[in-house]
Write a structure and sequence with these properties.
Layout (H helix, E strand, L loop, with lengths): L2 H6 E8 L3 E8 L8 E4 L6 H11 L7 E6 L3 E2 L2 E3 L6 E3 H8 L2 E6 H8 L8 E3 L14 E8 L3 E9 L2 E4 L11 H10 L10 H4 L2 H11 L8 H6 L4 H25 L5 E4 L1 H7 L2 H11 L13 E4 L4 H8 L4
Parallel strand pairs: 1-4, 4-8, 10-13, 13-14
Antiparallel strand pairs: 1-2, 2-3, 5-6, 6-7, 9-14, 10-11, 11-12
Helix pairs in contact: 4-12, 5-9, 9-11
């Protein structure tokens, strides 16, 4: 890091997942430095992880820290969903002598949308650039499918992005998704009552294993490793259809003309798989019978540092 960058540096940015964290330095021109990845299991707390990052970076001077958390954030306190790590902006600010701001990870991705290059996106339903990049105010929707499920509605204007919170993973499955499940699992569909029960890492694996009762139970990564097998391709076709039915409902609920943006390991694995993606597109694309003019292109965020870009772009009041 040269002296000009030291002078221009504004903040530390962090993307805290349940398993790993990414941290980087951001600069006054909106760029971010090389991100460093840390395994959460190697650290007793987020504080000790930040200390390791600062040591590796030579204890740089910064005035702010923005932290995106894979879990609920209320005010300026938060916690990870699947790890006993708790966050408080005042405590972190005091510990590191930095003005500190916390946000949900999907909110950080929402802030990142106007700053993502076309190369950072996998175009699922069209090849044009996202509409929000070259028109007036647009509504968009970030859909996160990984350890859990959630969405973040985003309003994008010339002034930037304004993400909103939600707890969409805990709502009931839309009727048409449940009926499609019930057609394949007459006795087992009731085991997937909420959106997250079906659309998450554990939901993906649980549904496959229910549909393959005579085979050994597999984890999600093990299923994707066998994606060339006929039974796995059949499942990916079905799961892509289910996801499309869900997104058709989200399209009506949130009117995201600026685009639906998938994020998370499960979503990315599915959209990078030709069988699942093609099935999704076939089911998602037809216009809705009652609202045929409601359309929303679909993209998948393929940049690992996207949440860090969102943290770097947030204007602190």
């Amino acid at each position: 890091m040269n002296q000009a960058q030291v002078r221009e540096m504004t903040r530390i940015v962090a993307d805290v997942g349940g398993t790993n964290c990414r941290l980087a330095l951001s600069f006054a021109d909106g760029t971010i430095g090389t991100s460093r990845r840390f395994a959460n299991d190697d650290y007793a707390s987020f504080d000790t992880l930040v200390e390791a990052f600062l040591t590796q970076e030579g204890h740089p001077k910064a005035s702010e820290m923005v932290v995106a958390i894979a879990g609920p954030v209320a005010g300026q306190s938060g916690r990870l969903t699947n790890r006993d790590w708790h966050f408080d902006s005042k405590a972190l600010g005091t510990r590191f002598s930095l003005r500190t701001h916390l946000m949900n990870d999907l909110g950080a991705l929402g802030h990142a949308l106007p700053h993502l290059s076309d190369a950072s996106l996998l175009h699922v339903t069209e090849t044009d650039a996202p509409k929000s990049k070259h028109s007036g105010p647009q509504q968009a929707l970030v859909v996160g499918i990984g350890t859990g499920f959630n969405v973040s509605p985003v309003l994008i204007t010339d002034q930037g992005a304004s993400p909103l919170g939600a707890e969409a993973g805990h709502v009931s499955l839309p009727l048409e998704v449940f009926q499609a499940l019930q057609a394949q699992l007459p006795e087992g569909a009731a085991g997937f009552p909420t959106v997250e029960d079906c659309f998450s890492g554990r939901g993906f694996a649980a549904l496959y294993n229910r549909l393959q009762p005579s085979s050994p139970a597999l984890k999600g990564q093990e299923i994707m490793a066998l994606q060339d097998l006929p039974q796995v391709q059949e499942f990916l076709t079905f799961y892509g259809e289910l996801l499309a039915r869900l997104c058709r409902n989200l399209r009506l609920a949130y009117l995201p003309a600026g685009g639906i943006y998938f994020a998370g390991t499960v979503a990315r694995s599915l959209m990078e798989n030709t069988t699942a993606r093609d099935s999704f597109v076939r089911t998602y694309t037809p216009p809705d019978k009652t609202c045929p003019n409601v359309q929303a292109p679909v993209f998948c965020i393929a940049e690992d540092a996207a949440a860090l870009r969102g943290c770097a772009s947030v204007t602190l009041g």
